[in-house]
Design brief:
The complex is a heterodimer of chains A (323) and B (497). Chain A is an alpha/beta fold and 323 residues long. Chain A is built from 12 helices and 8 strands. In chain B, strand 10, helix 10 and strand 11 form a beta-alpha-beta unit. In chain B, helix 11 packs across helix 12. Chain B is globular and about 65 Å long. The chains are: A alpha/beta (323), B alpha/beta (497).
């Protein structure tokens, strides 16, 4: 039984974890490190729209923005991926062909996951068939909160296998496991859910340095979404997984990160939590392969700050395309 | 083995590039505020700055640049006489002032400290070497809080001592250390003033500047002349103050050796004395602790303020079953501490306070390396000029070693292990000191049981180095006696009838 692979999760002291997370917000990022952070953060964005009223037109314009966020400035990187509902994957696949920007699709009955397992798995299969490069699944929070860890584990394992089985040639379908930490409530739960997700992806042989498997904070539909203490605890789970198994797990805070300043505070947290854990120089996780921001409005604030570094003045919000 | 960071996305996604991946680092972020400092400071006596009687000055040096910041008066017997006389003259009027009026002065000082916070923080970091992050976020806000808190007590003292009649002690001599210069001045002055005493304060010779800036604040808020007098100088100046017949009370924070001398001198005089001395505080990590947070606590406990903290958690006891994990995580965390320019806003560990203290630390390091323990020091460079000691630890230390028994007052940790709770308590209490202790476990019942058996004035549970004006602070055994802060701290500045 794979449950044996779930390591005993350590407890988390919420007060000290929160204090440590807060310490990153007093890091002062200036000059060249600011410009680098802005570009790095932009290259890590999963440009997202997840609304009932999403249209093919909106999806196409987001795809265009994802490839060239600041037209006329070739040094400004593309974002890492776009993130849509499964119904929009085909439109996005058409728009992004050959650009290198990945297509992430939420699946498994996003955002609640309150559907029969076969429906959730079919949802995932369809997104992969339509051309999704990355699947953002939700865990079964009901089972988790009822103490049924093995159910949570088995379901993540099933989705992981769907992704892994789709690997062929250059195509690697990546998985992001959304814990919906706002519903898990405690940092102890966040840590346990992280460990379960990592163990399941490990068993499916999904974890690699290219970001085969991520853990992700939130759907964006529940408040609070991503917070720094939650992200810190998840990064610690990622670090311990590397210490224990030598594997690389990606991290995606999603929802609630709107400003460039918040973004570089997250980068500071990644650097100081994961640097020196593996044998790479620098911090291996400071890369779009292993770290993403799930956000819709963050990209424009990053662009606004980048423009400010160039011109010395702040542009108005309407100077940047909404999508 | 070292391999290259992952390929930039340039190779993956065509038109756009990013020029940094795993190697992103923080650029220098120097604090831009420049405090207004004089070239030369006299003593602050009877409400104004005065020349020293013998005309002698000494230099105060920045430990991070080795450059002279200012000249400061060297206090002689005559200067101390003059300061004590001023305090004595000011006493009747200050004591007779309605308590609510005293409170207003103290409140004004607190407000002015907040307004000048950034300048004071920069001066504190220049003069003492502590990182601006810490002087800005800890020292100065806490100093202001101390004045605010005690402003509130001034007219409520009879409620603090129900059924008793609290009266001021009189003229208080106060000698403060160099590790938290302004904060220690606040700890001593705020309760003394609230209780209606007048004061003669002697700051440490390596860090006199912020106390003198505080004197400028006293001028600005028009504190009545003579209520607080500040005499600068080294050990001899302090000795003159201790031995002065016009003093009713001494409050001393500093080394145990000096504290013992003061206690001997005071024996049988009937004068009041409080001593806040050294420590070799234990930080106990149980296997059921939240390990990552406990590691944070170890780091805060010993590397905060370069380990120049009397309650530093300089002895860590780790339960054997989690020892390897704790030490590995601790070392990795220590490599993330940024050592260097105290005025860089990203610096975590600043300069050692003085050349002399660096020599003391190095003597202990040399001594420790001759024992059976393993020495490990964080990686990284330190600046060419200035006094530096990167965070370090001795692992597998035996409790009999000098580095496990004596206060080093530097960023040096002794790591030891234990197997049972009884052993942890026995080892933790096996010290001449008893200032502070830390306990880390996720189990509530255990934490209170252990805390009740530790002989220490402050026990922190799942945290470390937390200070608050409302919380009493002080030691057991050779860590001193008397409490500072909170209700208990008022007792030292009152006579009850």
């Amino acid at each position: 039984m794979p449950k044996a692979l779930i390591p005993p999760s350590p407890t988390v002291d919420a007060i000290m974890a929160t204090e440590r997370a807060k310490s990153f917000t007093t890091r002062s990022i200036k000059k060249e490190s600011k410009e680098q952070a802005l570009k790095l953060a932009l290259s890590m964005v999963d440009l997202t729209t997840l609304e009932g009223k999403d249209s093919p037109e909106k999806v196409r314009s987001i795809c265009r923005k994802a490839v060239t966020p600041m037209p006329g400035h070739p040094d400004i990187p593309s974002v890492a991926a776009v993130c849509f509902y499964p119904s929009m994957v085909k439109v996005a696949a058409e728009a992004l062909k050959g650009t290198g920007v990945k297509i992430a699709s939420v699946a498994t009955g996003f955002p609640s996951g309150q559907y029969p397992l076969d429906v959730r798995l079919r949802d995932t299969e369809k997104a992969i068939e339509d051309g999704a490069d990355e699947i953002d699944m939700v865990i079964n929070r009901g089972a988790f909160l009822a103490g049924q860890r093995d159910v949570v584990y088995d379901e993540i394992l099933a989705v992981s296998r769907l992704c892994r089985d789709a690997w062929s040639g250059d195509r690697h379908v990546h998985l992001k496991v959304i814990l919906e930490t706002g519903e898990l409530e405690t940092l102890d739960n966040v840590r346990l859910a992280s460990d379960i997700a990592i163990a399941a992806m490990l068993e499916a042989n999904l974890l690699d340095e290219q970001g085969g498997g991520f853990i992700k904070t939130s759907t964006g539909k529940v408040s609070p979404a991503a917070t720094m203490p939650v992200t810190l605890v998840m990064l610690e789970a990622i670090r311990d997984a590397h210490r224990r198994e030598g594997v690389f797990v990606g991290m995606k805070p999603a929802g609630g990160i709107r400003t460039a300043k918040e973004a570089w505070h997250y980068l500071c947290m990644v650097k100081e939590t994961l640097e020196g854990v593996d044998s790479h120089t620098g911090c291996h996780w400071l890369s779009p392969h292993l770290f993403r921001f799930g956000a819709s409005s963050l990209a424009n604030d990053l662009l606004r700050q980048l423009a400010h570094l160039r011109t010395g003045v702040y542009a108005a919000g309407y100077d940047f395309a909404e999508a | 083995m070292t391999t290259a960071p992952p390929p930039s996305r340039a190779s993956v996604i065509g038109p756009a590039t990013i020029d940094v991946t795993g190697l992103w680092d923080y650029a220098p972020a120097p604090e831009s505020v420049k405090p207004k400092l004089r070239d030369r400071y006299g003593h602050f006596i009877d409400g104004k700055f005065v020349e020293p009687a013998q005309g002698q000055y000494f230099q105060t040096v920045s430990p991070s640049t080795e450059q002279v910041i200012a000249e400061v008066a060297e206090g002689s017997q005559a200067d101390v006489d003059r300061a004590v006389a001023a305090a004595r003259d000011a006493l009747p009027k200050w004591t007779a002032l309605p308590a609510i009026e005293r409170a207003k002065y103290i409140y004004r000082i607190a407000r002015r400290l907040q307004e000048c916070a950034r300048e004071l923080a920069v001066a504190e970091s220049m003069d003492g070497g502590k990182p601006i992050r810490e002087s800005r976020d800890v020292d100065i806000p806490l100093a202001a809080q101390h004045f605010f808190y005690h402003a509130g007590w001034a007219d409520k003292l009879e409620y603090a001592f129900a059924g008793r009649n609290p009266k001021p002690v009189g003229v208080c001599g106060q000698i403060i250390p160099w590790n938290f210069p302004l904060l220690m001045a606040a700890w001593k002055l705020a309760p003394a003033l609230a209780c209606g005493n007048t004061c003669v304060l002697k700051p440490a010779e390596t860090t006199p500047l912020t106390a003198l800036m505080l004197a400028e604040i006293f001028e600005e808020v028009e504190l009545p002349p003579g209520v607080v007098n500040i005499v600068t100088g080294a050990g001899a100046t302090g000795a003159a103050l201790v031995e002065h017949s016009g003093i009713d009370k001494i409050a001393f924070t500093g080394s145990t050796a000096v504290g013992k001398k003061i206690a001997q001198h005071f024996a049988g005089t009937g004068k009041k004395l409080t001593l806040e001395l050294g420590g070799k505080s234990p930080n106990i990590i149980f296997e059921d602790a939240s390990i990552d947070q406990a590691v944070e606590g170890i780091v805060q406990g010993i590397y905060f303020n370069q380990g120049h903290v009397c309650c530093a958690g300089s002895r860590v006891f780790v339960q054997e079953s989690v020892r390897d994990e704790v030490v590995e995580k601790l070392k990795r965390r220590m490599n993330q501490l940024r050592v260097g320019d105290p005025l860089d806003k990203n610096t975590d560990v600043g300069a050692i306070n003085s050349e002399g203290q660096l020599a003391t630390i190095n003597t202990y390091l040399a001594e420790g390396k001759t024992g059976g323990s393993t020495f490990w020091q964080a990686e990284g460079e330190t600046p060419d000029r200035g006094y530096w000691c990167k965070p370090c630890l001795f692992d597998n230390v035996q409790p009999s070693e000098v580095i496990a028994r004596e206060e080093i007052f530097g960023p040096v940790l002794a790591v030891m292990t234990f197997r049972t709770p009884a052993e942890a308590i026995e080892r933790a209490n096996n010290t001449p000191y008893g200032l502070a202790a830390g306990v880390w476990t996720d189990k509530g019942s255990k934490i209170f049981e252990i805390a009740s058996k530790l002989k220490a004035g402050v026990v922190w549970l799942n945290t470390y180095n937390k200070f608050d004006a409302a919380s009493p602070f002080g030691g057991f055994k050779e860590s001193g006696f008397g409490r500072e802060g909170g209700l208990h701290g008022l007792r030292a500045y009152t006579r009850l009838s």
